[in-house]
Amino acid sequence: ILSLLARWSLIGALIGLxxxxxxxxxxxxxxxPMVVMMARMRPARDDGLSHHxxxxxxxxxxxxxxxxxxLALLLVGWSAIPALLAAYAVxxxxxxxxxxxxxxxxxxxxxxxxxxxxxxxxxxxxxxIS
Length: 130
Description:
The chain has helices at residues 2-16, 20-40, 49-53, 58-76, 80-102, 107-129. With 130 residues, it is mostly helical.
């Protein structure tokens, strides 16, 4: 509920600022950390869906990060840089917590990283453009 309310508020603020392209940029940015987490962290359980999905090669993770950065730069210009930094910072914090508490990543951890990264990216873009 808190994630939904935070995103609702931030999206409303961006629409009020007339920055509709920032919504797409934040969505793109928020998905790249999931691929990086999958490539860098082992699954928390050997019998979970994340384990059976497998780990993408590190080159794939870098490609995903690069494509997300490029698209975000095209959509919102230099405002993408703080958004990318914020998204990766919260995802990295979640990765540290997940590794300490459950020993790796799971589908729930990946989903949470997307939600947190999107909130961080939206907030960073608002700070920069307002």
